[in-house]
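User: Show me a protein chain along with its predicted structure.
Assistant: Here is one chain, sequence first, then structure tokens.
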Amino acid sequence: MASEHADQFIAQMRKEEQQRQMGYREQALKLYPHVCGRCTREFEGKKLRELTVHHRDHNHDNNPLDGSNWELLCIYCHEEEHTREVQQQHSVEAASTGHTKPSLEHSPFAALGERFKSK
């Protein structure tokens, strides 16, 4: 019974989030030209779904009607923006604690070729 209630609650939360996103996405698409703010690719027709709304302050609840916290980014540039943000957070944490953490640029297989050459 509790599991069923939790599933219903999660489904309702997802539905509300999707509705909220559709609201500000539709507003942003009316306010701004259908161009990625980073790579300047233009989008129309079916490709328009590849254009996303990026929140400049990274707060998805901050949705002023004038769109001042939004920019349209293609899915690739949007992913790059969030990857860069995570990378910066890792750098700040490592600098403040003195501990280095694996970064997104780290490749566990980087020295693999060298290991095979030495054998």
